[in-house]
Amino acid sequence: MGNGRKQTALWLVFVEGAALSLGIYLLLTVLLSALVVKAVLPEEGSFPAVAASCCLASFAGAMLSVRRSSWGSLASAMVSAAGFLLAVVAVALLCWQQITWLGRGGVLLLCGAGGGLLAGLLGGRRRKRKRRPVRRGRKA
């Protein structure tokens, strides 16, 4: 007796948001590295571009979670961004044994959290339209 759509588990919504963020971040990182190798993007501008791509990826995944979650917009966006950042930190710790949290590592975390926060603030839930009763004119 439903509307024909399956209800997705809440935890799966956040996993999908984090996975979308990771995919976008990976694609943007590959694109930026190709631009640096081809000398289109200078080496000094590579870190700001990576930070912006981290923010953009976190924003996209968090917006997906905001649209599909039953929680509030800010809470669901921040949970999705936290999942994305947790995965980024896990990969960083596996590849490098130490991370400079007060240097560029912390900036990337702040950019990812900022993308999630921005999605939470901008991605309000869609409101359903109220059905108005149809008024019929008098018959003469």
**Computed CA radius of gyration, to the nearest angstrom:** 21 Å
Secondary-structure element series: HHHH
Overall helicity: 55-70%
Contiguous helical run count: 4
List the domain count as a whole number.
1
Main sheet makeup: none
Q: What is the general shape?
A: elongated
Query: Regions with pLDDT < 50 over 5+ consecutive residues?
Result: none
Q: Termini, distance in Å?
A: 42 Å
Give the overall pLDDT as a whole number: 86
Q: What is the total tally of β strands?
A: 0
Q: What is the beta-strand fraction?
A: under 5%
Transmembrane segments: 12-41, 47-66, 78-99, 105-123
Protein name: DUF3792 family protein
Keywords: Membrane, Transmembrane, Transmembrane helix
Question: Topology, please?
Answer:
Elements: H1 10-37, H2 46-68, H3 73-95, H4 104-122
Helix pairs in contact: 1-2, 1-3, 2-3, 2-4, 3-4
Organism: Dysosmobacter welbionis
Transmembrane segments: 12-41, 47-66, 78-99, 105-123
Keywords: Membrane, Transmembrane, Transmembrane helix
Would you mind describing this structure in some detail?
The chain is mainly α and 140 residues long. The protein has one domain. The chain contains four helices and no strands. The protein has helices at residues 10-37, 46-68, 73-95, 104-122. The chain is elongated and about 80 Å long. The N and C termini lie far apart (42 Å).
